[in-house]
Amino acid sequence: MQTIAYTKEILAELSRTIERMDDAEAEKLVDGMQRANKIFVAGSGRSGLMAKAFAMRMMHVGLDPYVVGETITPNLEANDMLIIGSGSGETKSLLSMAEKATSIGASLALVTTNPTSVIAPLAAIMIEIPAQAKAEGTSGKSIQPMGSLYEQSLLLFYDSIILRFMEKKELHNDTMYGRHANLE
Fold first, then answer.
1. Which of 58, 101, 118, 128 could crosslink 65 through cysteines, CB 3.0-4.6 Å?
2. Where does the SIS domain lie (predicted)?
């Protein structure tokens, strides 16, 4: 298969995956973000990179986001929200964060391929991305290696959450651009 053919198949996989997602849970996430004082995001590996991109867009729309593990991340409090992106939902460090967040009384959202994971029962909001998890290998859900389909879907999902937030708050690109980094 040639490069463009692979690209077309990746786009088809993304389309099939996103069509199967639950919009009601996504709407709960948008509403929870509007209510939260501060929003924390976490993920390991490539999921963590998607979380960082999401945090940047949240800042652009005027929210108060933080990436767990960064040196300037403040403490999590009861009126805050933690959003975890984890394909497996089983990563021990993320489980520990989820347990801590719920013990403090913060809202927990999980975006995962595994709705029966150990983190899932802790989450007030659970969004399933029905994609191949990296441990599934050649499950037939994707031609892509490991968790690529999940991670790509995660980024698109996070961007769609931002679009819905913008719609609800009647925000536009020019508003966001005003918060864009200017020391570059």
1. 58
2. 29-171
